[in-house]
Amino acid sequence: MSQGCDAAMPLLTRLHRNGKAQIALGLGIGIAFGFLLQKGGVTDYNVIIGQLLLENFIVVKVMLSAVIVAMIGVHLLVHFGYAELHVSPGSLGSNMIGGLIFGAGFALLGLCPGTVAGAAGTGALDALFGGIIGMLVGAGLFADFYPKIKARFLSLAPLPAVTLYGFLHLDRWVVIGIAEAVMIGILLLLAYHGW
Amino acid sequence: MCAAYGISCILSRAVRDILRGPRMSGILFPATWSPYAAGAGIGVLVCISFLLCNRPLGASSAYVKARGLLEKAVDPHLEEKKEYYREIPPRVDGVLMLLPGIIIGAFIAAIISGQFHLSWVPGLWSTTFGDNVIVRLLAAFAGGIILAFGARWAGGCTSGHGISGTSQLSLASIVSAACFFIGGIVAAFVIFHVAGV
Which residues contact B183 (CB under 8 A, 6 or more apart)? Predict the structure, then answer.
């Protein structure tokens, strides 16, 4: 914690606890997010499927650009005491199995949970009446099966560390530097190949 | 000397690609920004969410809340019966509001650039599976169920794990994001190149 936070923290904490402000902020961030998803081209089924068929790399470009900015931004906020990290330990049983199931749905719907809402906003009726309704049904199904899935799978084969720098036993900022360089390198390589 | 030339070559092509925006690659694309600019904007939003809301930016838990609210309208004792809704309580809050927000934001973005089109069957789907609306709706519905199930199983989606979690260097999020794409690429090749011949 450094000095900068002393004045701002009580204000921020009050904001975090203000339910009405959080509802307004959630809506506002959602609107900006939906706007940017459409502008990035990723609310389009054809773009997402093109990415999964490795015919274009727009989703990778949008996501890596977001992570390049957010990784440095969030860690600076945390470093100066303006934010907290929200990381929790994972497991292969949760993250790998769940991730692969997600991938199957990702390819069949051609959109993900955020972009399916965005696609509905751009007039994609299959996203609105198929995808979003399916998401609501799927969320309910998961809630029904949650106790069994939790007991049998979610803590199966726990990951050896919470963070990548913990796993590598390296300083956080060293790993951030390497990760940023690798991500920028991937973007440059994609651009160089004209993908 | 040679290396410097190589690097300058890569850089200049990268700058040209960044300025030109997304490639057309045969499909009719709507008017969009450069994917790098849109992505960087999303990165800033993640930072804003951490600062002002004390949480990562993730879309999938909003569906649990929306579903919970619908169920709670029928059964007020929902949270006592189902453990999952005690962990993700069904209530109108900032997490839930992300969902209508995304729909509104994308609607505004599409309207102002003349990209709002009502459609039932996406182009790439119809070239492989035809333009039957019922078939596409059933596929999208099934895809939505599997997607939500997988997202909640993994504890997040492309935004929560893929962007917010990876940005925090969370190992769980990095594993999840890798599996989203491994699963997605394999499934897309099966759907389009095996089933869709």
Answer: A99, A100, A101, A102, A103, A104, A106, A107, B150
